[in-house]
Write a structure and sequence with these properties.
It is found in: Cell inner membrane; Periplasm. The protein is built from 13 helices and eleven strands. By secondary structure, it is an alpha/beta fold. α2 crosses α10, α2 crosses α11 and α10 crosses α11.
Length: about 325
């Protein structure tokens, strides 16, 4: 009887160990390979993502056999949800969504920057808007409520001109939409002004549907705020720092490539934006947009904290934010 009982226990343990072995094998792939997904937006501020994909730079820094997938996002909220659910391992997003989700409890880290600059305030042709004060009673568009470009614009309007949106009892109406559609919305007369990430401001200029009202250096945090940050989960940082280092190393390689090979990087950007958005951008549009952006992976936590405070003062956040622990620069040193 005891012998039979021992045999049963042994059989049960064998099945359990076999099941565990099969589960691990499936997670890693039948050939032992790993699989990760990187996300970014079809904006000029995210060219490092495009270059890294085109040049297969993640495969160069990750362990041999790692399969790298890419996912493209229309807005920061969708990107952050993908990070939090593990749909993607990392990628580029605006600092606004990263900051907002962190404050709301998301376990994430900003491990690098992607670029600075690139936000432009545009006025619709025929809107009779000659300066920012003329935006009283007008409708403006941004990619999202409380997104990076929205906060930059509303901070400037409040601090420099005393004009706010109806959301906080002011005079401007706010709507949201994809930046690639802004030029057509201007042409249709649906909105009066836009806070626009490049290259879409240069598209509006090229099509003649609008004009620059406030250029990048004069928008709040215009040349100092990271226009894109590289985000991953705290879980990945804690449990697989080697993977995070490999991912950041590829991002750094892509950024250095942009700095050293701007013309080839522009071609990559034109092709990828066409592939993702079906928008044909001319070389002149990209050249114009490029002048407003600085590509860097260096990240300054203080600038993000100041930006977060501005978001709170605009009532996008209920509580005064504390971003301690959000930025982790150990992977870019």
């Amino acid at each position: 009887m005891k012998k039979l009982f021992a045999l049963l226990i042994f059989a049960a343990l064998s099945l359990l160990l076999a099941a565990c072995g099969n589960s691990d094998e499936q997670a890693a792939g039948n050939d032992g390979s790993k699989e990760i997904t990187i996300g970014y937006f079809p904006n000029i501020n995210h060219v490092a993502g495009m270059v890294a994909e085109e040049k297969d730079m993640y495969s160069e820094t990750l362990p041999e056999g790692t399969k790298v997938n890419y996912k493209y996002f229309p807005d920061g909220s969708a990107f952050m949800t993908a990070i939090e659910t593990g749909e993607i391992e990392g990628g580029l997003v605006g600092p606004g969504p990263a900051m907002n989700h962190y404050i709301s409890g998301a376990k994430i880290n900003v491990v690098a920057a992607g670029s600075t600059g690139g936000t432009v305030i545009m006025a619709r042709k025929g809107s009779d808007i000659k300066n920012p004060e003329d935006l009283v009673g007008k409708t403006f568009i941004s990619p999202g409520v409380g997104c990076t470009h929205d906060v930059q614009f509303e901070t400037m309007m409040k601090e420099e001109y005393g004009v706010t949106s109806k959301r906080i009892g002011g005079e401007m109406k706010h709507v949201t939409g994809k930046p690639a559609t802004y030029s057509s919305m201007f042409q249709a007369g649906n909105v009066d002004a836009a806070t626009v990430p490049e290259p879409w401001a240069s598209v509006i200029e090229a099509k003649g549907s609008g004009k620059v009202l406030v250029n990048t250096p004069d928008v709040a945090y215009g040349n100092t705020l990271p226009a894109a940050v590289f985000v991953t989960s705290q879980d990945l940082v804690k449990n697989n720092p080697d993977m995070v280092q490999s991912i950041v190393d590829a991002h750094k390689k892509a950024t250095k490539f942009i700095q050293e090979n701007p013309e080839e990087a522009k071609t990559i950007a034109i092709d990828k934006i066409k592939e993702i958005t079906d928008q044909d951008l001319s070389k002149s549009v990209i050249d114009n947009a490029w002048e407003r952006i600085n590509f860097t992976y260096e990240i300054d936590g203080k600038t993000l904290q100041d930006f977060a405070t501005s978001s709170y003062e605009l009532e996008f956040l209920k509580d005064k934010p504390n971003l301690d622990g959000l930025v982790n620069t150990s992977f870019i040193k």
